[in-house]
Amino acid sequence: MVRETQVLNEVLFCQPDEPLLELTVTLDTDQLFWFNFSGSSWIRRVPELPPWPPELEPPELVRRDATFCQDLLFSLTNIASGQLAQARGIPVAKVFPSQPVALDKPNTLVCLVENIFPPAVDITWREDDVPVTHGVTHTHYTPTGDVSFARFSYLRVTPSAGTTYSCVVTSRGLNSSTVAYWVAQETGDTETLWTALCGAAMALGIVLALMGITMMVAAWRSRRGG
Fold it and tell me: How many CB atoms lie within 10 A of CB 28?
């Protein structure tokens, strides 16, 4: 039996656009932790995860790495400005409900945006082409294996039959937007099964994440003891 490889990543990036700095820890494509630079603390993406061990990577070490990143960015920008074209990705978005749909019952729509590069996009929501700001939350950027980023946006809704929701993704610096649509309708058996499978996969991901963090801490303590 071939075992699937799980990859634990820690990615720090800096750039001239917002966000200027971001640091995340991911298991495959699932974000586990992100670093709050304004508060100098690690934040759990999933409440079920244990807190980040402060001795594993203290805030002062993170800030030192961030300063190095920004200094390197400044130097490379001065050297390459006007010499190299900036690489850009065209975002791909899709919208789906987080739970099986029951009309006129509260739910949450998820907008998954992939192929983001650089990590500087604005995500907005519309309901029947009317802008919506209430009940909207976004995640931080998650690095992916193809040297791009992904990001989630969430909208709390109470869908009525035929209502159309759209997730609009605008890349800063580009004169275009990507739009993904979702139309409210009662969930069928197929969609219910798909939602259940997604929930099972997420639960498995959380268990693996806990195992990964535990192994990281154990390895660090072993090296320290040696």
Answer: 17
In whole angstroms, give the CA distance from residue 194 to residue 88.
32
- Phi, psi dihedrals of residue 99, rounded to the nearest 5°: -130, 160
Rounded to 5, what percent of the chain is helix, strand, coil? 25, 35, 40
ω into 100 cis (within 30 of 0): no
Q: Is the dihedral of CA 212, 216, 222, 223 positive or negative?
A: positive
Residue 222's identity, in one-letter code, is: S
Q: Rounded to an integer, what distance in angstroms lies between the CA atom of residue 200 and that of residue 208?
A: 13
**96: helix, strand or coil:** strand
Query: What are the pLDDT digits (tens) for 136-189?
Result: 999 999 998 788 999 999 999 999 999 999 999 999 877 789 999 999 987 654
Alpha-carbon gap, residue 52 to 218, rounded angstroms: 13
Distance, CA of 9 to CA of 96 (rounded, Å) = 27
pTM of the model: 0.74
Q: Give the amino acid at 30.
A: D
Q: Phi/psi class of residue 221: alpha, beta or left (left: φ > 0; alpha: ψ in -120 to 50)?
A: alpha
DSSP summary character for residue 206: H
